[in-house]
Design brief:
The complex is a heterodimer.
Chain A (H helix, E strand, L loop, with lengths): L7 H25 L22 H6 L2 H29 L4 H27 L2 H24 L13 H20 L7 H32 L2 H29 L20 H27 L3 H6 L6 H6 L2
Chain B lengths: L4 H13 L10 H13 L1 H19 L5 H25 L1 H5 L8 H4 L4 H23 L1 H21 L6 H10 L1 H8 L2 H6 L4 H27 L1 H7 L4 H4 L4 H20 L7 H24 L2 H25 L4
The chains are: A mainly alpha, B mainly alpha.
């Protein structure tokens, strides 16, 4: 540390990223196993305070109770870590952008907690979708805070818009996926076809932007950016395979855009293997989003501009050219 | 009852589509119409009316009486016009110091302040009576509360603290309450139908958060004029723009789930997707402004903000009626 104070903001932000990753994985499992209503009350668990619910009952209880209550506990932990992060960031000499992103994280985690409660109390599919789309957004913000709070002497370089486009495409793809994950049984075949088409189009867009970003960064990016971009391409390839697998384990071989089985059997994992495929597809989508955020920050001028005090410097105007 | 969009939608129009200020050499009737237009700021009133219509529609659907609904809109428009007039009366000294506003009718002396006070009082009273007559006291009280918040709190706060935006944004979101109350929202909620209340709450939250990036973009573009006029905007207090950009980005991010909740009462997938695209576009423009903090990115953010609001309101009205 050689005379510099310890970077608590970065440490807590990294902790938040870790907790959120586990939280989102639990959330994905809750949806896969349709365990959201395993605990019918909220904010408590079967009449107990969330934090005081007997651990033995939780750990030795049914699988869906384990998932749902675990998801809630992790959510509470993520909320507390977020509050600590905001406090640490505002008390430290962190960059203004980090402080405001921490405030955004607080707002998002509060809203996300309320959405989780509303999802249970209202048992509403659309609330579940909003909950499923806010989680990755919060994760992306946490990752951004962790990246931006790093101490670095690196200066920004000319930034291609491609990594930013990749972030947007990754998020929109998660939203399209959430529509399929939380499918209402009453939805018409034409709407289903449209959603599947949208998800395939999103997969195409993410693939194109990932490859284009890797090509762009490969030419004049830093070593770290090149590694991240190649890693993202690898994740996207794996994700495409998992996507095909998720379709097969959920609806059978894709003979047509609307499988015969889907009307009677909505998306549901039927075995540990199929649950891993379906849940892995969701979690990998979030990892691609998070990695894209890292790449967009790493390859761009964020670090330079957030540390600059004066506006309109040449490096700033180049940063997003 | 003009939200902080007050300076802004008018400013937006000036920025995006050319100056609103007249040349001063027009025929009398046209000059008078231009002066009245500057005084009542019809674009802002239209924005307020669009909000009221959306909130009413999401709460109650088609109005039972078209005449009463027209009365609500005309009354609300008059109250909005009144707040614009009072705002210009109170800010005429600072308006004189800014090129953007230096040729407003009160500043330039084409209209007398006493006349403006008179017109503002008349429009406020007639507007309030029309709202009471068409949809009762509750909607009129919401309209008056918005007027009061804007005129008595937000306007003076602009000279005191950069927190004025957070206060003014409440006034910007309050017209939702007019539509909700006129649509019999409380009675529907009491009878167990919470969809209208949820839609209205979501719309109000969206409108509140939407104003931060929108207003910060304007505060950036006119920061030198605001500084010269002694208005304590965030871009004046922090000329680097970092705080304004940070606030914009935080609000745009928080607006994403609020926009998505708009789709909950109706369960509309189309509204859900439209809200996602609109709000993510807003986040993208805010990110670009945060990185560059120059006039081009502020102008782009302003442009996207108008498109986002228009898109969201349109999608909410077309797809979002609770079934």
């Amino acid at each position: 540390m050689t005379g510099r104070s310890f970077n608590w903001t970065h440490l807590v932000a990294c902790l938040l990223v870790g907790v959120t990753a586990v939280l989102l994985s639990f959330g994905a499992l809750v949806t896969t196993y349709e365990a959201a209503m395993a605990v019918p009350d909220w904010p408590g668990t079967y009449g107990h305070n969330l934090l005081l619910y007997p651990w033995a009952d939780w750990l030795q209880g049914p699988w869906d109770l384990f998932l749902e209550h675990g998801h809630r506990l992790l959510g509470a932990l993520a909320g507390m870590v977020t509050l600590v992060l905001a406090a640490v960031a505002w008390r430290s000499s962190a960059r203004p952008m980090v402080k405001w992103l921490a405030m955004a994280a607080v707002a998002l985690v509060v809203v996300q907690g309320a959405l989780g409660g509303a999802r249970v109390l209202l048992d509403d599919k659309t609330v579940a979708k909003v909950h499923a789309c806010t989680g990755p957004l919060f994760f992306a913000v946490a990752v951004a805070i962790a990246c931006l709070s790093r101490r670095s002497s690196e200066q920004g370089t000319r930034l291609s818009r491609l990594p930013v486009a990749l972030v947007v495409a990754s998020y929109l793809q998660l939203v399209a996926g959430a529509q399929l994950r939380h499918l209402d049984a009453a939805v018409s075949p034409s709407v289903f076809r449209g959603l599947v088409g949208l998800h395939i189009l999103g997969a195409f867009a993410v693939t194109v932007f990932a490859v284009a970003s890797a090509s762009s960064v490969g030419i004049d990016g830093s070593l770290s950016s090149r590694r991240w971009s190649r890693g993202i391409v690898a994740l996207v390839v794996l994700q495409l395979l998992l996507g095909l697998g998720a379709w097969v384990v959920s609806w059978g071989m894709p003979a047509g855009l609307v499988p015969e089985s889907w009307l009677s059997e909505p998306l549901r994992a039927r075995s540990v293997w199929s649950a891993m495929v379906v849940t892995g597809h969701v979690v990998l989508g979030m990892l691609i989003l998070a990695s894209s955020v890292v790449l967009a920050i790493d390859a761009g001028g964020w670090r330079a501009v957030t540390s600059a005090s004066a506006a309109g410097s040449s490096s700033q105007s180049r940063a997003f050219a | 009852m003009t939200p902080p969009m007050a300076g802004d939608v008018a400013a937006s129009a000036a920025i995006v589509g050319g100056s609103l200020e007249g040349d001063g050499a027009q025929p009398t009737a046209a000059a008078w119409a231009a002066d009245v237009s500057q005084l009542v700021r019809p674009r802002i009133a239209l924005m307020v009316l669009a909000t009221v219509v959306a909130a009413f529609w999401l709460t109650a659907g088609r109005p039972e009486s078209l005449l009463a609904f027209t009365g609500l809109l005309v009354g609300t428009g008059l109250v909005a016009a009144s707040s614009s007039i009072v705002n210009q009366i109170l800010e005429r000294d600072s308006d004189r110091l800014m090129p953007r506003t230096a040729r407003r009718p009160l500043v330039a002396g084409r209209l007398a302040t006493t006349d403006a006070w008179f017109v503002s009082a008349v429009t406020l009273i007639i507007g309030s009576i029309m709202i009471v007559a068409s949809f009762g006291w509750a909607a009129a009280a919401a309209a008056f509360a918005t007027w009061l918040l804007y005129v008595a709190l937000y306007t003076p706060l602009k000279r005191i603290t950069p927190l004025n935006t957070a206060v003014g944004a409440v006034a910007g979101a309050l017209p939702v309450a007019i539509g909700w109350l006129a649509g019999d929202g409380p009675a529907r909620l009491a009878s167990g139908d919470a969809r209208g209340a949820l839609a209205a709450a979501s719309l109000a939250t969206v409108l509140y958060l939407w104003q931060f990036p929108h207003f910060m973009a304007i505060a950036w573009l006119y920061r030198r004029q605001y500084e010269a006029a002694g208005l304590r905007m965030l871009t004046v207090v922090d000329p680097s723009g970092l705080r304004a950009a940070g606030q914009s980005l935080a609000a745009a991010l928080a607006m994403v789930p609020a926009s998505l909740v708009l789709a909950v009462p109706s369960g509309s997938i189309r509204l859900f997707l439209a809200a996602t695209v609109a709000s993510i576009a807003y986040v993208g423009a805010s990110v670009q402004f945060a990185i560059r903090r120059d006039d081009a990115s502020a102008r782009f953010l302003l442009f996207v903000s108008l498109g986002t609001l228009l898109g969201l309101l349109t999608a909410a009205v077309v797809f979002g009626r609770p079934v």
